[in-house]
Amino acid sequence: MKKLKRYQYERYAVLCNLAYSRVLKQTRYGFAPKGQRVIANRFGKPMMRVLWSKQSDEVIVVIKGSHNIWDWCLNLALWQTRCPHLLLPYPIHAGYLSLIHQPSAVFHKHDPKNLTVYERLFSIIEPLIKQGKRVTFTGHSSGGAIGCILGDSLERQHPKTVKRIVTFGQPALGGAPFVRHYLLSRKTYRICCDLDIVTFLPPIPYFYQHVGKQLWLYNGRIYENTPTIIRLGRSITSWALRPFSYHLMTKYIRNKDFFDER
């Protein structure tokens, strides 16, 4: 597994943050003037953005996390189910599958009608793959989980076309069969930040597990593949001791810039 470079991390993080904005002007971030397609959910709101440029062989699919009541309710659909349309040989979180298979409202004037989110995405990226481009999936929260599903499905249909998957604050989406058969573990980077409780969800050990390389940003350091029980223990301890941490001299030194120079 190659290391995730800092400029790559920053780029994907910025794009995931911008995905929540109503408008994303792709040319500001190095993409072509016509290098953006928006995939809407059933309510006509942007759910994914496909970004590319002529100079780069990388297509980036940016996926939002939960951003309406419907999405949040589907997070609670904790049973697992299979999906033959995606060619995945394992059951996964039923709620995330529902998000992928929901109807996609027409967003661009020339978009075909009556497609699901999954079908619309593949109709956009398959012509780009034929041009020799490879696909990176990145997403925040449930968007990261969806990115893993779509990436694994794409890799099975078009081998060696997925460049990498980078997720931020991602919940787990499957159990042991998912971990065993997932094709992209060596290309998946799962970023966890400090005490983010969503990264421990769903709270059903073994029935829900993570894949890929975990990068935990904690106390000013990056920890790789820290076991869940250790990460949870440190997080709980840190939370419990946080009131006392404000008494440390390091806090006073860090806040020295509040004072004017005299």
From TrEMBL:
Highest taxon above the source species: Bacteria
Database matches in InterPro entries: AB_hydrolase_fold, Fungal_lipase-type, Sec_MonoDiacylglyc_Lipase
Domain Fungal lipase-type: 60-204
One of the Pfam families matching this protein, by short name: Lipase_3
GO biological process: one example: lipid metabolic process
Full protein name: Lipase
Native source species: Vibrio renipiscarius
